[in-house]
Design goal:
By secondary structure, the chain is of the alpha+beta class. Helices cover 16% and strands 42% of the residues.
């Protein structure tokens, strides 16, 4: 694939770079502005659209738009991936990517664009490698070394040669996010697991690594059966992984970048039991509303959820809050109209109760739209993965023969974890005449 041009917009065009014959900057600017103005809200503005013979791809960061245009049938996934990579590189250089930082570093940005893209083809995109030959002095002058690092033109553009560490070790974080949507009746409407493996490498030289997971496909291909395997979908690796070897034999081998990086992501569509089950009974009266919230942990006793936060929506016109809970603290967020129940430590197979009471105005709309919102749950469970993914081994080989230490940590966090609510209305009974 190739890019015709790249642009960065705020309320005006800040940076623009043509790589091949492309639409004029004025046309790109006017067409994109018109699209933004025509959109009623952000969801109406599609990240990929076509106008005439020109295709537009963009991402948004704050008030900035990163736009790439092509006039041929290009690989749009690569274009979007490059735009996100470009944003990550800018963050490494400027920390905060906004209008002022772009204007203050436009010379450096043009230098980066020229190195990251060659005639419309993506080239060096690793921030650490780029920093070896593109830097900015205190006087805002771009400084380049006399010789270009071999990593730019070598087989491993993500890693430089001659790296030395006093202590050779590598850290792996297996992090899973549980997405769950539960109906007011308690039925699980949607559940999925999004996982990522992050690495932090402090290895000398040019080490060869081989990672083994309890992958179901790998075990079946070798004629072995194991109940503790997982069937991972939508697996996406860092560019350091040898994809061809993984496709043929499911072997994960690679030469890692130095420092911290996202190694792989995966997804599992499985019917999982909600880790923290929350039942909320709401009773409304003419002048008050009462809550009974029950929270139960469905994971094993040896695990503990930390920093649990249960957010329960309350009417926008509610006042005079009163709370009582068996554990933790309860507060009222007036701006968000949310009752917040915080539990610092929530052991497995435990149940806690919280009661809330709010006053309501005597005259109000019974069909309160504020109560159409869902209850939200946040948590973090260390040393635990909901899918059962395990790192079976991590072999490290380097020609110098040093011994390295691998460290593995497992964490499960909430993703989009919501529970819908139902209301029970209690009307005031009229007294009978005698």
């Amino acid at each position: 694939m190739h890019f015709q041009s790249y642009s960065m917009f705020y309320s005006q065009e800040l940076i623009q770079r043509n790589y091949r014959e492309a639409s004029s900057s004025r046309n790109v600017r006017e067409i994109f502005k018109q699209r933004v103005l025509e959109a009623h809200d952000e969801s109406d503005l599609k990240p990929i659209f076509q106008d005439g013979t020109c295709n537009y791809c963009f991402i948004r960061h704050g008030d900035l738009y990163f736009i790439a245009t092509v006039t041929m049938n290009a690989n749009v996934a690569v274009i979007m991936a490059f735009l996100y990579k470009l944003l990550a590189v800018f963050k490494e250089y400027f920390k905060s990517v906004e209008e002022e930082s772009v204007k203050d570093n436009f010379v450096l940005i043009y230098e980066l664009l020229d190195e990251m893209m060659d005639n419309g083809y993506p080239q060096a995109t690793e921030p650490k490698i780029l920093k070896e030959f593109i830097n900015q002095s205190e006087a805002n002058v771009v400084v380049r070394p006399k010789a270009i690092p071999t990593a730019v033109t070598g087989q491993t553009p993500w890693r430089s040669e001659g790296i030395v560490h006093k202590k050779n070790e590598i850290f792996l974080d297996v992090i899973e996010f549980a997405n769950c949507l539960i109906s007011a009746e308690g039925t699980v409407l949607h559940a999925e697991i999004l996982g990522t493996i992050k690495m932090k490498s402090f290895l000398s030289g040019m080490p060869e690594l081989k990672l083994g997971l309890n992958d179901k496909v790998l075990y079946e291909a070798r004629g072995r059966r194991n109940k503790k395997t997982v069937d991972m979908e939508d697996v996406c690796f860092h560019q350091c992984v040898r994809h061809s070897r993984f496709e043929t034999s499911r072997t994960i081998s690679f030469i890692p970048p130095d420092g911290e990086f996202d190694f792989m992501t995966y997804r599992l569509d499985s019917k999982v039991r909600p880790l923290i089950w929350v039942e909320c009974q709401i009773e409304t009266y003419p002048t008050r509303i009462e809550y009974l919230v029950k929270a139960k942990s469905n994971f094993k006793r040896r695990s503990t959820a930390n920093n649990v936060r249960i957010s329960v929506p309350v009417p926008y016109d509610a006042d005079s809050p009163k709370f009582k809970s068996s554990v933790g603290t309860v507060g009222y967020d007036t701006e968000a109209s949310m009752m917040i129940w915080k539990i610092q430590s929530f052991p497995g197979q435990k149940q806690y109760i919280m009661r809330g009471h709010f006053g309501l105005p005597s005259i109000r709309d019974e069909e309160d739209a504020s109560m159409d919102r869902a209850l939200d749950v946040k948590f973090e469970i260390p040393y635990f993965t909901i899918s059962g993914v395990q790192v079976r081994y991590l072999k490290i080989t380097e020609k110098s023969g040093y011994q390295a230490l691998p460290w593995v940590r497992y964490i499960t966090r909430n993703g989009n974890y919501q529970i819908r609510l139902s209301l029970k209305h209690n009307k005031k009974k009229k007294s009978k005449r005698v």
